[in-house]
Amino acid sequence: MFILTAVLTTGALTLTACGSRDDKGGGDSSNGKKTTVVIGFDAPLTGDLSALGLGMKNSADLAIKTANKDNTVPGVEFKLEALDDQAQPSVGQQNASKLISNKDVLGVVGPLNSSVSQSMQKPFNDASLVQISPANTGTELTQGDGWKTGDKKRPFKTYFRTATTDQVQGAFAAKYLFNTAKIKQVYLIDDQKTYGAGLAASFKETYTKLGGKIVGSDHINPDDRDFNAVVAKVKNSGAKALYYGGEYPAAAPLSQQLKDSGSNIPLMGGDGIYSGEFPKLNKKAQGDLATSVGKPVEQLDSAKKFIADYKTAGYKDAYEAYGGSTYDATWSIIEAVKIAVADNGGKLPDDARAKVLEAMNKVKFDGVTGPVSYDEYGDTTNTMMTAYQVDKGAWVPKLSEAYKP
Predict the structure, then answer these.
(1) Going by fewer Cβ within 10 Å, which terminus of the chain is more open, N or C?
(2) pLDDT at 12 exceeding the cut of 70
(3) Are 111 and 138 in contact (CB under 8 A)?
């Protein structure tokens, strides 16, 4: 059957005849009919981390609109189905089930949080549904729980990511703090979540190998906002910096309360604190440090069109830390669909999810963040990292390099 869908393009309302997935020979653009392919999306769109999630959603939306405008896959019209996981694993699992139940969903972008991803990976794997996260850095997601001992095993064939791992990020942060910032004594805190704990552990391993000293360590509840007790411990430890494994909603008040106590040492964290919200929430963020995956998109020639198109689209939310990597994650699914259609004589195959998953191993293109491809674990082959420092209320890049621990 045919479905008439209203498509808003350049301010004009047009009607497009779209064939449903029930149409045999879907993907054939003859007679003007198109097959609808849905790309799912999952991230926190409300709550403390919504600034990151909304930037991700907009970037995925932009990739889909670009593919449709350019007719990147002839005969296919892409649609985004975006769900809010509230940064909660239980909600993410429910969202995974909802996306799996929609037979038109051939790939999912997200989530933001590694802990949420842990609840989604198996359901997606059982459904042979591709998942690509632009933000997950938990190493075990791609390399299994034994990666620390060198026993790397890919747990789920459907999982990919455009962000590098905490193994890389933590080691890069440790090297930067020890060698570049010349800080030899650090207090270590994490929020006990998958991302934060894994990042802190990776940092500690490399930092101590380099000769740095962990003068104290602690854990916090990420929902707390009063950190005076742990701040007193940090102040009395003689630490020259505080490394925090966690996200900006807790990191910002932790840093400010540390400065308010009279301990004028920098807080350093990973990409979870690299948000424009961090200096907004922290009046004493000056000098604080963060690492984030990739090179700043503002410095990349490959990102100029993305930045211009994002601005033209008029999104009210900034693309934030993961805009470029989200665009590339979404485009990876688009490219996989393109390969699956081309390999099937220009038509979407009946076993589309399986074929798109198969095609993911062939995906390779020049993206917003640079060359995009995936290794045998589903990890990005781009290990570029950047260290940032807050100066006058904004994150300023200090050092970028491709890094392998």
Answers:
(1) N
(2) no
(3) no
Asked whether the beta carbons of 67 and 79 are under 8 A apart, the reply is no
Radius of gyration of the chain (CA): 22
Tokens of 387: 């260290």
Give the CA distances from residue 206 to residues 138, 153, 176, 319, 368, in Å, rounded to whole numbers and listed in that order: 16, 22, 11, 31, 30
Given a contact cutoff of 8 angstroms between Cβ atoms, the answer to whether 84 and 15 are in contact is: no
Q: pTM surpassing 0.70?
A: yes
Torsion over CA of 41, 86, 54 and 300, rounded to 10 degrees? Answer: -80
- Strand 384-391 with 289-293, pairing: antiparallel
Instruction: State pLDDT tens for residues 148-199.
Output: 888 999 999 999 999 999 999 999 999 999 999 999 999 999 999 999 999 9
Q: How far is CA 355 from CA 59, 89, 213, 347, in A?
A: 25, 28, 50, 12
